[in-house]
Amino acid sequence: MGIEVRLPADLVTIAVIGCGERGNHYAVYALQEPTKCRIVAIAEPRPKTRLLFANKYSVNNNLVFESWEDFHAASADALQATGRRLADAVVIAVQDHMHAQLVEAFAAQGYDILCEKPMATSIEHCLRIEAAVKNAGIIFGMGHVLRYSPYSRAITDIVRSGRLGQLVNAHHIEPVGHWHFAHSYVRGNWAKEKESSFSLMTKSCHDVDILCHWMSPDTPAPTRCLNCAYESQCPYSAKKVYLDRVAAGHLGWPVAPLVDGIPDIENITDALKTGPYGKCVYESDNDVCDNQVVSLQYASGATVSFTMVAYTTLMCDRQTRLHFTHGEIVGDMAQFTVTDFRTREQTTHHPPPEGGHHGGGDIGLIRTFVDAVRTREQHLLGTDVSDVLKSHLTVFAAEHSRKTGTVVDCVEFEASARRAFSKGVAV
Q: pLDDT tens for residues 352-363?
């Protein structure tokens, strides 16, 4: 590449593949902690988004690529010429169905990888990712950001301590938010299962993951809003959700994904006139669930109930109740109260807010991933690729149960998937 940049030996260098909302949420850590990591390369097909991202993170023009394939080819050239990769790690923040292909490609080149959720959109692709990561022996992080928020980590410490006895029941709700569901799962990229995946996977796989984590080692032709006479009365009005936000100076999510570049009244109006985000939610052809209840029973007899529902005022502020033999935890992602039945003591915990999304989980994940890459210690992430696969298989099993109306044994479900995968049979 003709580039030689001297960096501190323990500075983790990162290439971001996909510079949209999720790529930005992870990359911002490099601005917050410039002595720990740096964004040195990017790949993004949208020209304005690519330029904005490159300028924001001061990426050398020679390491700004239009596609992941271009970056991969340049990396191959660098490895052949110098024996060195273009970065220590890659953040994969592209569309869900592409994850397996990119993980396999970059794992083969020896990159440590942080992959946005979900792991993949099919069991076969998840198993391919597990195999690629294990064969390469790399550090692998998964975008299960709920594990890494101060709130979740504080609850995990109590769960692991055993001070409340055995965890025997959990009730966890994800209130998606009415217009959030309309934005992403009616008008947006995740509206059609055949084009992405089912909503429990695309929206809530990290909820099932945190529940599995707490239970571990237990095993378990539309009209458009802009010309609608009822727009002013509609809670899903695209004008209210997008145009009014831009008019008020709000240019981030959920407005930013609608355009390539900086949102303004003109380009957002054009997007609502011609694109999916201006469609009437009642007339759209999405086919993913807008509410679902998943019931799990683990080997010890412990039970879990998880609810994902679109029709809420709250937006992604999870509510959790954990019931133990000697106490309980009740929380809402901002604070949680611990009750000990034996001492009758009740304490309310207020984990320090870190800002950002998912209660600080985004920054918590990228911070932990950078530490794991720098120290070469996978255990710092609190998970590995097989652990990630297991919670994803739980999600696939739940969807199989919904579609077939049957009870699914998760252990046999995993064993059956692995048998089929080993024989080259589609799973």
A: 887 777 777 889
